[in-house]
């Protein structure tokens, strides 16, 4: 029995020794394989380096491929923005500018109508110098709807951070937004200028109790065109809260370039619209009874232009030509349009609604007697006013956005004016607009220069 145990122990020891020998053999094989693999990999890396090193060096040493923007005869709109100072152009009183691009001296000729520009600058300066009725800020932009040429861009501001008031979306849009609401109501709800609408309470208030369709003996009826011309808040509030709602209000605002970049020769601050899920807020947005919706005067002028362009938003431009010191003219491609905001039929309705504002609406006093005026009697005039106090209630924001079109020639102008009145109301925005329109149509037009259109930049509302 003892002998069997000894034999078993001997067998177990021999088995363990054999397993150790096998393990050492496997370890040795793995080491050899790893060494071989490392050698092959090193050889492969060396071969690749020898093969491709000259090509890699050549790629790094080669000059960069010429890009479209480096065309020496071409200046992009982005490059133009880098050359121009918005503060210098806040109230420019001459036609040409000298700028430097790298080692190049360039002469820029603007599209400004100098007579119109001088009129607005002088009017603004005169009123700012007043002891009583001086505005906190005032700005105006006039554009040729047919071409997008900026005819005038002038502004002054006592705000410390203001650079160019004409390009800043610092001003509540107020009832100017009724243009967008009217467009949506015309296309989506099928309203015509003579459609009958109703409201309860005051014209210029907006209480929740006014936002229903209940009728009683105190209910007022009014046509669509008169509700626009007289800027009746509860009518437009009901259209927004009960009919158009968030989707249509935000959709049409986008068509009119709210919350979007506006392609221009200078940076333009985005006009803003914020709309939530509360129907009362929809009413506030629709009638402009809020301080959150904001626009710039440049944007306002483009909105006004849609009433005479068949709904097209013209692509604005300020620089007419760019010439080098050697006399070579550089091309500046621009989009032919910023999109079709609304169809022709809607544009025609807007035109009629805005004419009503001049004849019998909120702008009638400023344009009183225009049919007997030697210049204005030859024009079709339209507009929209807007006014609202700022949050501190120390500034009364006053807007006019409108158009003028010569009946015989079709020559036209769109204009936006904003004034920030302080303790006393001075010259109103619509009064400045009347003077500007009279000035522009009192002298022959300049012939616009053709400019190269960059069709890839143009978008319509249906583009992605």
From TrEMBL:
The chain crosses the membrane at residues 32-53. Keywords: Membrane, Transmembrane, Transmembrane helix. One of its GO terms (molecular function) is peptidoglycan L,D-transpeptidase activity. Residues 454-464 have a biased composition (Polar residues). One of its GO terms (cellular component) is plasma membrane. The keyword Transmembrane applies. Residues 139-430 form the Penicillin-binding protein transpeptidase domain. GO terms for biological process: cell wall organization. Gene3D superfamilies: DD-peptidase/beta-lactamase superfamily. Residues 443-464 are annotated as: Disordered. It comes from the Bacteria. PANTHER family: PEPTIDOGLYCAN D,D-TRANSPEPTIDASE, PEPTIDOGLYCAN D,D-TRANSPEPTIDASE MRDA. This is Penicillin binding protein transpeptidase domain-containing protein. It comes from Desulfoluna spongiiphila.
